[in-house]
Amino acid sequence: MEVLQADNISKQYGTGANAVHALREISFHISQGEFAAIVGTSGSGKTTLLNLIGGLDVPTGGEIIIRGHNLAGLKRKQLTVFRRRNIGFVFQNYSLMPVLNVYDNVALPVTFDRGKHAGHRYIEELLKELGLWEKRTRYPHELSGGQQQRTALARALANKPAVVLADEPTGNLDSCTAAEVMGLLKNSCRKYNQAILMVTHNESLAMNCDRILHIEDGRLVRDRNLDKGGALL
How many other β-carbons are positioned within 10 Å of the β-carbon of residue 223? Predict the structure, then answer.
């Protein structure tokens, strides 16, 4: 079942002679339970694409449809609620709240959405699954980089989103911890049947995904399905 459709996505900054085409007519669809990597050189448009899919920016052309909802058709407040309920974000710098402990950081998006009706049992399950339950009362500065990234992953999964967007989630980690986080991402993709779209510059990490979308100069130049061993584009 397709959960994400990106159809002819373009993004232009500036006009006329000063126009910069960050993305040019990119199209792909992602299914539930699929783990896809976006790779490409620095400045190729990877993070721009992720921001558009996450509703953090607006495309100049094309449509982004998540769970049957066209993001362009949502008003600002509707988009905020939709994003909170359907999209999870994992960033390279973790983006944890320093004044909140592990448990409260993870519960934050759920608390925003459901208040006291937050799914505490599910959050407990997540924290145990990611090896964080014993650290639930610790604060971000008391955690290692890997533990902070696992906390960020748990927070991204807390609202049971349809799509998880990860921007260089292993960029600040050593190779051993990076491999561990990749394993956790893959496991969560399978266990919770979510679509995960990960931006990475690390081709060897990308090879652990189901699919690789290769972007250069704002264009999708290759779409490779690793399960089938072939190229779709």
Answer: 17
Tokens of 22: 């960050």
* H or E stretch at 165: strand 163-167
66 bridge partner residues: 4, 69
pLDDT tens readout for residues 95-113: 999 999 999 999 988 877 7
| 25: number of Cβ within 10 Å | 14
Q: Measured between alpha carbons, how far is 52 from 16 in angstroms, rounded to an integer?
A: 22
What's the pTM?
Answer: 0.89
Q: Is the Cβ–Cβ distance between 169 and 181 less than 8 Å?
A: yes
Q: Please give the C-alpha separations between residue 161 and each of 37, 38, 112, 178, 226, in angstroms, as whole numbers.
A: 18, 19, 14, 23, 24
Contact 71, 55 (CB under 8 A): yes
Residue reference for tokens 């449809």 = 65
Give the tens place of pLDDT for each residue, 3-38.
Answer: 999 999 999 999 888 899 999 999 999 999 999 999
**Euclidean distance between CA atoms 206 and 59, whole angstroms:** 26
d(CA 42, CA 76): 30
In the sheet with 20-31, reading across from the earlier edge strand, the strands are 20-31, 2-13, 61-66, 69-70
